Amino acid sequence: MYLNCHSYYSLRFGTFSEIDLLELAKKNQIDSLALTDINNTSACPNFIRKAKDYKIKPIVGIDFRNNHQPLYVGLAKNNEGFKELNDFLSYHLHKKLNLPEIAPSFHNAYIIYPFKQVIALEKTKFLEHEYIGISIKDIPQLRLSILKYIEKKLVILQPVTFRTKKDFNAHRLLRAIDNNTLLSHLLENQQACFSEKMIPNNEIKNEFSEFDFIIKNTEDIINECTINFDFSKNKPSLNQKTYTGSIEEDNKFLKKLCKQGLPYRYKNPDKKVYDRLEKELALIIKMNFVSYFLINWRIISYAQEKGYYYVGRGSGANSIVAYILRITDVDPIELDLYFERFINSHRTSPPDFDIDFSWRDRQDITRFIFEEFNNVALMGAYVTFHYKGAVRELGKVFGLPKFEIDKLSEGNYDYNSLDHLHKLVIIYSQLIQGIPNYISVHSSGIVISEKSLHYYSATNLPPKGFPTVQFDMIIAEDLGLYKFDILGQRGLAKIKEAISIIQYNQPEKANFDIHDIKKFKKDPNINRLIKEAKCLACFYVESPAMRMLLSKLKTDNYLGLVAASSIIRPGVAKSGMMREYILRVHDPKRKKNSHPIMQELMNETYGIMVYQEDVIKVAHLFAKLTLDEADVLRRGMSGKFRSRKEFKEVQNKFIRNCRNEGYDEKLIFEIWNQVASFAGYAFPKGHSASYAVESYQSLFLKAYFPLEYLVATLNNGGGFYRPEVYLHEAKLYGASILTPCINTSKYEHILHGKTIYLGLSILRNLDHKTSELILAERNQNGLYISLDNFIDRIPIGIEQISILIKIDAFAFTKKNKHELLWEAHFKLSATSIDYTQPPLFKEKRTEYKLPDFKTSRLENAFEQIESFGFPLCGYYEIMASKPLNKRRASELRYYLNKKIDIYGYLIAMKNTGTSNGKRMAFGTFLDQFGDVFDTVLFPGVQAKYKLRHKGVYRMYGTVVEEFGFLSIEIINIVKQDYIQDPRYSDTICTD
What we know:
By secondary structure, the protein is of the alpha/beta class. The chain is built from 38 helices and 22 strands. The longest helix has 20 residues, at 685-704.
C-alpha cells in the first residue's frame, strides 16, 4: 500500500537508509513497497537486492519535485520503465531545468499526482498511466471533492519519511541546512508533514475502508510493477561485451596484439613465458574478460599516441597479458606474480586496473573515453555528514557565532559546562552523522556498459562535465558493472616535465630512456639514494614515514622497495607486523616464530602478510576457504562491504575452518587479527611493483638531474612537502634562486644552468589574468625597458603593480623598490583598469625628484613571506635571538641515549593516536645547516607543547636509535620568535 517512500538518499530530506525502510516494512507486515526518493535513484539497486531477504516485493520510482514542492510520483512497471524515468530525470538534471508540472506520457511507468497537486492544476483528464494519489490526511477533503467520482484513477499515496519524532527532528535540521536558514525561520513548505509515517498494512486498509476501489486500484498497480536485476554470485558482467563488435574477433585481436607486443617485453622469451601467456589467454577468453583488456589497451594506446605518461597498476599487474599489451610495466615472471590469484574460475569480476596519468593529461583521457565508447559515466560517491561538518552546519542552523562553532567542531569544550543551545548542537549532530550530504564523483572510477546506464540509475552532470551515475562502486559491482580506474597524479607530470627541462638545459645528456627500468634497478647511485633514504621529491618514497622505513630496512634494491611500498600502508603498521618485518629482515631466523604454513605461504616476506594476495593465500590455504570466499574476504576488509552479511558469513567460516584444522585458538585469532587489520589497506604485489617502477624513474632523475627534477616538482604542485623545502633542497645541490622578474620569468619556474628563475605563479596575490597579459605582451613586443614602458604596455592597477615591485620584479631598472613604488603611485591613476584594451596613447610622464632609499636584506625576507609564503634566506635569518648553539643533525649519533639541545625548522608533522586514545606527534625538522632530523612527541609532551605550526623551534630531548634510524624523543620544545617586521618597525634596519 506504500507507493511513495523516502530514504536518506532524498538528500537533506530523508533520515534513514533503504535497509531501514525494509526493516520498517517488515515490522508493519508490508509485503510490497515502493522506494521513490526525491529526484534520485541512488538506493534503488540495493533496495531491490535486499528486498528478497525481507520477503518484500520491491517497486522503484522517483518522487519528482521542484524545490522540494511535490509534482508527481513515477513508478516503474518494469526495467524499461525504470530507464524511462531515469532518462526523464537525467535530462533535467543535466540541463539544470525545472521539471514540468505535467509529466510526459511514459510507456512503461505510472504517474501519480498528489491530490493537492491535481486540485492546484485543475486537472480533470488523465491518461491511462496517470493516477491521483490520496494520503490519509487527504481523506476528509476527498469526501467533499468531485474527484472521488473518478474511481478508476484514485490510489493510495501515503508518503513515508519518518519512523519517529527523532527522525522528524533530524529532517527539520536537514531542511534548515539545505535552505541555509535558521531552524526557527524554516518555511512550512520546505518540510514534510509529521504524518508521513508507516502504519501496519491492515491499519492503512482500515483508513481507506470506505473507498474499497482505492485499495483495489493500489493493489492493481502493485501487481503490475515488477523489476529485476541479477545479483547472483555468477551474474554476467554488464560492462561493454565486445571491443570489435564480435566475441570471436575480440579473441583473435587480443592474441594478435600479444604476438606483436611479445618481442618488446621479452627479447628471447623462454618456455615459461609462452606457457604463462597461453594459460592467461585461455582463462581470459573463458571468463569473457577479453573486452575489458582491449578497452584498457585502447585507452593506453591513445595515451601513447599523445605522448602521455601513465602507470598501470592494481591487481591487473599480475598479468603477463597486461604487461605485453603495455597496460602495466611490471613483469609478473620476474616477481613471481600469480595470475590465478586474481583471475580464476571462481571469480566473476575482471581484474582491477588502476591507470595513473599525469594530472595535466587526465582530463583529455577522460574526454577520449567518453567520445570513444558508448554508455559511459563517471562513478558516483556520496559525501556523508561527519562530526565536524555536522556541528558546523547545526551551529549555523541554531544561530551560534563562528568562534563558538569553531570550538564545538574542534571538540574544544567540556560538555557539562555547555548551555542548553550548545548541547543541542552536539546532541542533534549525532542524529545526522553518517547521513549522505551530497552526491560527489568517485576519485577515479568510470563505467562503460553494454546498455544505457539509465537502466540502472539516473545520472547527474557535475562541474567536471561528464555524466555521473547516482550509486557508488559497491552497488555497481553488485549489479555487475566494473569500473575502469583512471587517476591523475603529479608524479608522472614531474617526470615528463623534468625530461623537457633536461632537453633544453642539458641537451647533450638527454639521450636516456626513462622506461629502461631494468637498467635503473641495477644502478648503484639510485640504490644508494634508497638505502640512505635521500629521496626528497621522489614518488611515494619521500615522506618522513617512508624515509624512516627505508632507513631501518637498509633497502637497496627493487624487490626491497616493492615490499616497502606495501609495508608502509596503515594496516601492516597497525597490526604490529611492520616492526616484526624489519626485525626479520635483519634476523631471518625470527621467521620461525610464524606458523609453518605461514612461513611456506609468505617465504619471500619472512612469514608475514605484506601484500593483498597474502590474504587470499591465508584464507584459501590456511583457513581452507574456497577461492571465491577468499576473494569476498579480501574485498570485504574495508568500507561498506565489511558490514555485509556475505562478509560476516565468510569471517565466521574462516574461524570455524581453522578450528576444524585443529589450530590453537590463540593462533587463529592472531592470524585473523592480522588479516582484519590490514587487508583493506594492503596493496596487491603488482600494485606495489608498479609504484616502485615510478619511484625508480623519479630516483633516476633525482640522482642525475636533481635541479631539473626539483623544478619540475615545484611546477607540478610539489609533493609531500611545501615548496620552500624543495627550493631549499635545490640550494643544497648548488642552485641559485632568483625572485620573479617581468623580463626573465615565465608563469612557471624555469631553470638555466644552475639558476632557478621563480615564476609569476608563485606570487599568491597576483591575478592570473595580469600574469597572462605581462607574458603575452613581452612575447609579442619584447622586453620591458623601464617602469614607464611597462605601465604604457600593460593595463594594471596600483595593487597589482605593487606586488611586482615589492618582490623586485623590476630590479633590472637598478632603482630601489621604494623609489619605484613612489613612481608607480604618482603615475597610476586610481581609476578602474580595462584589461581587454591596452592604452592607445602613451601618457606624458612627469619626472619627480625623490630622496635616496635603501632596502635591507631582512626587509626583502618579509616581502617574500608576504608574497609567496617563505623567505628564500630561510627562517633562521629572521630569528629575534640567534641560536645559542650550532648543533646539527649529522651529530645525532654522538648523542645516542644522551640529551641534546638543538634548533629545527618544522617541515612536516603527523598527529596520531596511541592505543589508549591519547594524541602524540611526529615532527620532521631542518637544522641550521639544511639537514633533516626527526622527533617524537609522546602524549604528555604533545599535550603540554602542542606542536602545530611551521616555524623554528628550540628543542631538548633524548637521541634514540632503532635499526640505525636516529630520532629525538622530545622533553620540551619552544617555538622561537622572529624579529619585528622591519617594514613596519620604528627602528631602521641597515642589515
